[in-house]
Specification:
This protein is an all-alpha fold and 214 residues long. It is built from 9 helices and no strands. The protein has helices at residues 2-6, 8-40, 45-59, 63-73, 83-109, 112-120, 125-155, 171-176, 181-210. Helix 2 packs antiparallel against helix 3 (45-59), helix 5 (83-109) crosses helix 7 and helix 7 runs antiparallel to helix 9 (181-210). The protein is elongated, with a radius of gyration of 20 Å.
């Protein structure tokens, strides 16, 4: 217990860093994920191709490699940002590919007749998707999206290797100060558990409110 009490501010700073990374990267992942899902079902071939390439490349690229590509690659093109923003970009873009596939699977559960009826009424593709299809698809993809964002929270630990303040990185200064490595990681694990349980609770509420009854 002394490990936690003696270093409460250090643990708090790390936990706050992990929460910030999770929240901002989740927002980016949700926006890009829904956008790419729309691209993948769009009637325009170039948009479908772009969405397919986005998902294929990101889902099959190790997250650590993507971090290196963002942190070391983007500055070569003149884009110099704080490491935290680079981490949010890497996490958000990577996770968006999985969000996209979850949303697309939800779109495929919506009966084809719904879209045909909307088009027969003169609705455009964006109107059909935004007003008819996505609201129904969202109800069935709440659990997989929640699981994906929980994975994002745990993946944020990689950011610590790129000079970003987050929870896992707390072990380095504590190890140097001679604290028990076992108890150091126990409290780090508790911190991650708090974050993931919070996300799980939020999505449980969403599922009860909007989910499809089984």
């Amino acid at each position: 217990m002394n490990v936690l009490l003696d270093n409460l501010s250090l643990y708090g700073e790390g936990l706050l860093g992990t929460v910030e990374l999770t929240v901002y990267a989740s927002l980016l992942a949700l926006v890009l994920g829904f956008l790419m899902a729309a691209f993948r079902v769009a009637p325009v071939g170039s948009l479908r191709a772009f969405g397919t390439v986005w998902v294929t490349v990101l889902r099959n690229t190790p997250l650590t490699l993507l971090f290196f590509a963002v942190v070391l690659g983007l500055p070569r093109f003149g884009l110099v940002l704080p490491f935290k923003l680079f981490a949010i970009l890497a996490l958000g873009c990577y996770t968006s590919a999985f969000i996209c596939e979850a949303v697309r699977s939800g779109i495929n559960t919506v009966p084809v007749g719904q879209g045909e009826a909307a088009r027969s009424l003169g609705m455009t593709f964006p109107q059909t998707l935004g007003d008819i299809v996505l609201p129904q698809a969202f109800r069935s993809v709440i659990p997989p999206i929640g699981s994906t964002l929980i994975a994002l929270a745990k993946n944020s630990a990689i950011a610590g290797a790129f000079s970003v303040v987050e929870l896992l990185g707390v072990y380095k200064p504590l190890n140097e100060m001679g604290y028990s490595i076992v108890w150091t990681f126990v409290w780090i694990a508790v911190g991650y558990l708090l974050v993931t349980l919070t996300i799980s609770a939020i999505f449980n509420v969403l599922e009860k409110r909007f989910g499809v009854a089984r």
